[in-house]
What we know:
By secondary structure, the protein is an alpha/beta fold. It has a single domain (17-155), classed as Rossmann fold. The chain contains 4 helices and 9 strands, in the order βαβαβββαββββα. It has a 6-stranded mixed sheet with strand order 4-3-2-5-6-7, sandwiched between helices. It has a 3-stranded antiparallel sheet with strand order 1-9-8. It starts with 9 loop residues before the first strand and ends with a helix. The structure holds inosinic acid (IMP) and magnesium ion (MG). Residues 47, 50-51, 105-106 line the site of magnesium ion (MG).
Amino acid sequence: MGTFDIDKDLESLVLSAEQIAEKVAEAADWLDKKFAFTHDTPLAVCVLKGSVFFFCDVVRAMKTPVQVDFMSVTSYGNSSESSGELEIIMDLTASVAGRSVILIEDIVDSGNTLSKIKDMILKRGARSFTVVTLLDKPSRRKLPIKADLSCCEVGDEFIVGYGLDYAQKYRDLPYIGILKREIYEKNSR
Length: 189
Ligand code: IMP
Ligand code: MG
């Protein structure tokens, strides 16, 4: 097998589809161990749209039964910096009160989105809050928050694919890569 051609807008590959599958299995296994002795059915929460593929893959790979729910928030708009305020575009339909909540995230960057969602879910009375993220950019953190499990650390680069977008593009790529700087720099000029 030779190398395959990645999308022409990408500078390099971060995780191939095969490597993503390994991370999915690791995350599912970690969650199964963590929730092995939990009496309630955990609620797995997906924040649309970036996390959707990782979320679906992880909950299906888990042996522990979970319920699923979705929410949508704004963090980036069309710029590449997270704004301070979190706006809920679509809220969860389930009540989280008294429940074990598992947030399955695509990426933690400044930490703003994660910390706001965590505060919100705990304020609504969740019994516990566990966060698993596929990607993590620790060097970009503005708030002192960490995922309970982060599967892959990346540097200060703009990442797309497998759910992650730039201006709504590239989400459908089955792998993850670094977007060429010229693609996002020409749009911010
Ligand atoms: P934070 O609030 O700065 O931690 O940003 C979290 C959200 O910003 C993520 O859930 C993504 O939707 C988005 N984001 C952060 N970094 C990237 C990236 O490199 N590529 C695509 N989206 C990103
Ligand atoms: Mg996200």
